[in-house]
Every structure is written in structure tokens, then in C-alpha cells.
């Protein structure tokens, strides 16, 4: 039983990787230099759980709460229902690499001026979501798949103040704020 489940998991991850590669070929970079008016955060819940800090930080950037969206991912080992609306898990991905979650698809269709991927290693699920996103400018962290991002920040995510100062510095350099 476990052998079959492991085989399907490997097939799913391989399909997600292929889907990511395909999505990267079709990315539209024409609006990459738009100023910051909307921001999205795609967060690995294993790494970061204080979502209110992200909303507060967006307000520090001069954004209204309605122009900020936080979407989270958690990998489930067993079936467990979740009442969290802006959350996706590995069970929402088909073995062909498609996403069966309406809220996630709406999040990915939103053309954020900036999308921040808060995860620090290659993660097939989050990678395919980043590659599917219609965001104009994508920011990630060192250790993630660099092909997905326009800017990679090399800091420890546990030091949120350092993240904020580095992020603001680069947004200013890029004339986004």
C-alpha cells in the first residue's frame, strides 16, 4: 500500500516540475516594472505562521489591507479538513500537476504588482503556484528555484525586521515605492 502511494507521490511531483517548466516558458514579463499597489504573499506554513505581520508590513508600505492577500500552503500527511479559506495543501494537486482549489486559482489569476514567495527550498507545489501566478514581479528567498523569481533575497526568514528592511531597500531601488 505504501509503495503505491509513494509511486503516485513521485509521479505527482514529476508532473508538477514539468508543469512549472512549461509555465516558465509562457511568462509575460512586460509589466514587471509597475509600481506597488497590490501585493500577495504565498507562504509555506512550516516556515512562517504570523500572517498578521504580513498585513501590518503591507500597511507600512502604504497599502490598504484590501490590496494585500496572504495565501498559505501546508503539506498534509493524512486527510484532515481545514476551514482556512486561503490555504492549499498537497491534496489539492492532481497527479497531472493541476490545481483543484477554486480559491487558489483565483489567487493565482490576480495580477499582483508584487508576489512574495515565502519559502526557502525547492517545493514542487509552491513552485508550480509561483509559475502559474499572473503576478507582475516575483520575490523569493535564497534556496528556492531562482528561475521563478525576479528578485531573490538572501536572509534568514526568522529575522522579519531584516526581511522588511531588505525588501523596502530593493523596492526603492526598483522604483516600486
What's this entry about, in short?
The protein is an alpha/beta fold. The chain has helices at 2-25, 51-60, 102-109, 124-132, 160-173; strands spanning 39-44, 68-74, 87-89, 114-118, 138-141, 151-153.
Written description of the protein model:
With 177 residues, the chain is of the alpha/beta class. It has a single domain (2-173), classed as Rossmann fold. It has helices spanning 2-25, 51-60, 102-109, 124-132, 160-173, and strands spanning 39-44, 68-74, 87-89, 114-118, 138-141, 151-153. Strands 3-2-1-4-5-6 form a six-stranded parallel sheet, sandwiched between helices. α1 packs parallel to α4 (124-132). The mean pLDDT is 91.
Properties at a glance:
alpha/beta; 6 strands; 5 helices; Rossmann fold; 6-stranded parallel beta sheet
Amino acid at each position: 500500500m505504501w509503495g503505491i502511494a509513494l509511486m503516485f507521490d513521485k509521479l505527482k511531483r514529476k508532473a508538477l516540475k514539468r508543469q512549472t517548466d512549461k509555465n516558465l516558458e509562457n511568462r509575460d514579463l512586460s509589466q514587471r516594472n509597475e509600481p506597488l499597489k497590490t501585493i500577495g504573499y504565498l507562504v509555506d506554513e512550516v516556515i512562517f505562521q504570523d500572517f498578521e505581520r504580513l498585513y501590518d508590513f503591507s500597511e507600512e508600505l502604504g497599502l490598504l489591507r484590501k490590496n494585500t492577500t496572504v495565501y498559505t500552503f501546508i503539506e498534509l500527511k493524512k486527510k484532515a479538513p481545514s476551514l482556512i479559506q486561503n490555504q492549499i495543501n498537497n491534496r489539492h494537486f492532481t497527479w497531472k500537476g493541476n490545481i483543484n482549489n477554486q480559491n487558489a486559482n483565483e489567487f493565482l489569476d490576480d495580477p499582483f504588482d508584487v508576489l512574495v514567495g515565502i519559502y526557502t527550498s525547492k517545493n514542487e507545489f509552491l513552485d508550480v503556484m509561483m509559475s502559474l501566478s499572473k503576478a507582475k514581479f516575483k520575490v523569493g528567498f535564497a534556496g528556492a528555484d531562482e528561475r521563478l523569481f525576479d528578485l531573490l533575497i538572501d536572509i534568514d526568514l526568522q529575522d522579519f525586521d531584516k526581511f522588511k528592511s531588505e525588501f523596502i531597500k530593493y523596492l526603492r531601488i526598483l522604483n516600486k515605492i
